[in-house]
Amino acid sequence: MTDDPPLAAPETIPTPDDIALVAFTSGPNGYPKGVAISHRILARAVRVHAFGRSERDVFLAASPLATIPMEQEVLTPLALGGTVHLTPGQGPLPADAVADYVRRNGITATILDPGLASQFLDIADGECRFLLVPMERNHGIFSVLTQVCSSYGCVETCGPVTLFEIDMPYDSVPLGRPLPGSRLHVLDEELRPVAEGETGEICISGQLASGYLNNPALTARRFVPNPLARDSDDAVLFRTGDLARVGPGGVVEYIGRTDRLVRVGGRRIEPGEIEVAMLETSPLDRAVGAGISGDGGATRLHAWYTAGSPVSPDAIVQALADAVPDYMVPAVLTQVSAFPRMANGRIDMQALLAHDEQGE
To answer: I want to staple 99 with a disulfide (CB 3.0 to 4.6 A). Which of 5, 124, 230, 339 is the partner?
Structure first.
């Protein structure tokens, strides 16, 4: 802030297809990429993400304001005329603190990642009218006292493009129905719809970002012409890199990633970004990260590293604290003398996992 007089308003007026915001998300090689979202798509997302909520609801925004959930947790509630509470303090709140805040402030609607949502329902079921859980392999999340819904989407789709009301405990929650203005496709490598029982890549059309900021090559690879287009609004197809299986009756089940991106706590994370941060903040020779599915299907971040001398995991965690968000700090860190290699020279991830299981 300065004491300078305010600048004059710009002479040009943005059009619906001009960029409203750029949201940064993990990219290849461990460096973020900017997703450019237009006014038209942002306005559409704000409209379709009401999810039955209204001006009578009191919302708790539990995600960092610098991430795309801000649209669902702040912009949509404000557009509805509702009241929004911002999460107090720094970093994510534990479940008991969320429950206490909900009770004291009359919160009726919020969005929590699957692990936190499950803990919250254990101690405060019925305290909140509506709970939205970002889609990943959700296990056993269900309530008869709280309306619990699951959604699927990403930064490139400006948040959710599907919604599913969880009406019973599921081993794997279906993706649900596409929201107005979006279409969800499960396609093979030739961008043809897969048959029932087959696995393919999730591709989205309709509610899409304009592309990646200053990266036309990546934009061309991920935002492709839609061979299934029905109209001009459906002309572009975004290849998410997520895998899904089409079940009986067209029910779509999320399977996992086609590349190294992993979902942890509802957020997509590129392990390479964590590896870069580890090497930049600690005296390490090499680092490798991965998302590992544990008990109950929840994904945890693991990282292995080599160094010329012993480096404690606690020291790495402390060094990472100022470099990356809390959710990107590995839950398990293991120093190894050398990385096991396969015949082609690539790191043998199965051998690394076995190393952790044996406690060596």
So the answer is: 124
Per-block mean pLDDT, blocks of 10 residues, the chain (360 long)? 73 90 72 90 95 95 78 94 84 84 96 85 94 74 93 93 91 86 94 90 96 95 95 93 84 77 75 84 90 72 92 95 88 91 70 68
Return the amino acid letter for 346: R
- The answer to whether residues 227 and 204 touch, using CB atoms and an 8 Å cutoff, is no
Q: Give CA–CA dist 137/122, Å, rounded.
A: 19
The secondary structure of residue 75, as a DSSP letter, is: I
Amino acid at 315: A
Q: Which residues of 226-237 are buried (b: 16+ CB within 10 A; e: fewer)?
A: beeeeeeebebb
Q: Is the dihedral of CA 186, 191, 193, 194 positive or negative?
A: negative
Residue count of the chain, please give it: 360
pTM of the model: 0.74
325-352: string of b/e by CB count within 10 Å (b at 16+)?
Answer: eeebbbeebbbbeebeeeeeeeeebeeb
**Dihedral angle, C-alpha 230, 235, 239, 242, nearest 10 °:** -30
